[in-house]
UniProtKB/TrEMBL annotation:
Residues 148-188 are annotated as: Disordered. Residues 172-183 have a biased composition (Basic and acidic residues). Pfam families: A_deamin. One of its GO terms (biological process) is RNA processing. Residues 60-385 form the A to I editase domain. PANTHER family: AT07585P-RELATED, EUKARYOTE SPECIFIC DSRNA BINDING PROTEIN. One of its GO terms (molecular function) is double-stranded RNA adenosine deaminase activity. GO terms for cellular component: cytoplasm; nucleolus. It comes from Planoprotostelium fungivorum. This is A to I editase domain-containing protein.
Amino acid sequence: MVEAEEMSQRSMDKMAEMTIQLYERLAPKGKPTAREWTVLASFCLLQKIEENWTPVKILSMGTGNRCLSESQLNKRGDIIHDSHAEIIARRSLIRLLYDELRKEGSKAIFEKKDDKYNLKDIYRLGMYISHTPCGDASIFEGPSVEVTLEETEEPEKKKRRVSTDDSTQETTQKRMRGDEPQNWRETGLVRRKPGRGEFTTSMSCSDKIASWSVLGVQGAILSTVMSPLYLSYLVVGDYYHREALDRAINLRVRVEGLPEGYSRRHIRLGHPVVVFQKGKSAATTDAVSSGYAISYMDGGISEVTVAQSGRKMGLTKKNLDSPKHAPSLSKMKLGLMARQAFGCKGETYIEMKRGGVDYRRAKEVLLSSSEFREWNRLPSEHSDFQIKPI
Ligand SMILES: [Zn+2]
């Protein structure tokens, strides 16, 4: 196991400040109204300055707090299923990495070693989240326990049903220990994100971040050309509970027998003094979470999506299902970008992912460990769509 060096309080505050300042500079489109709140997350590049790992650039950013239910998904890869800020920021980072790979020399943050791109030794990757991640990190005893995200959107307690057209049919969702009401306060479990009236197919942000400590944040497709890109620091704002966060992100991850190049990383945790004023803790009690997600990547490209549909904001009815108007962070568009950026092979998205052989092996090791065995795997047909020019 590799552990990052300590980070100063000043650096933690700076990571939060830089993210919030960047958020404030964005146009109002998609930002919460006076009666709304949201979650803000970013990935940040750090460099050692006077013996301190110091944030130097925000690479990507995301806002949002919604996730589509199973009945809202399609198998075309043209909508965003999971619009939690952490996941939007991570997809924006992946999109940015496609561009970064083309850079050379001092402008590049990666360098090639043994045929794969690696983050240069002078850099580290950090993450800021304005609110404790949903799932295991948000389960703790204390004054904050009543206001965690898990509590705000309880799933139906009884049989889950979903309406399709005029008929009603039972969903085929797998029930997990973490979904059962009697286990809602049990710690250490993997669990799915709650949706509106039914569970989603997406794992909680706590679970996904924990998986990055083994797999890296780059995903299967980029792993074909890139060594795992590990997170060194995680700085969390509202409802920060160090023990719960450490358990959710670090301590429950136990893996052995990872393929070469992969290892478990202990992520350094911290809490900034600065508060995100559009977050839940600063909102009025009757405020609701925003229905939009904003994505941003270094260079100034941002996009707003409607989290409840996973589509771009402001589309006309005619353009709703047009591939051309799919969000930039949809799997379909990211697959196209991967092909353009480094010639990623594969006709379909799932074929592209299969190129990451060691990544898949590492994921199998993680998901066969007792703590992650109940991870909900999205059926492969959801990734079995053609990646073709539009
Ligand atoms: Zn989340």
